[in-house]
Amino acid sequence: xxxxxxxxxxxxxxxxxxxxxxxxxxxxxxxxxxxxxxxxxxxxxxxxxxxxxxxxxxx
Length: 59
Prior knowledge:
By secondary structure, the chain is mainly alpha-helical. Helix content is 95%, strand content 0%. It has one helix and no strands. GO terms for molecular function: enzyme inhibitor activity; phosphatase regulator activity; protein kinase binding. Keywords: ANK repeat, Coiled coil, Repeat. Residues 6-59 form the cGMP-dependent protein kinase interacting domain.
């Protein structure tokens, strides 16, 4: 029984470390979100400008 308790405890510790790593990864991804949103908006704006230029050239 003691061995089973110990291996269960080790398994829980491993799971906890894995979850903590995943949380850290997700926190890093969240930090990047504002930059990604800004890049996305800039690309949308550039795309709109290019579409306007192309439509003027094709008239």
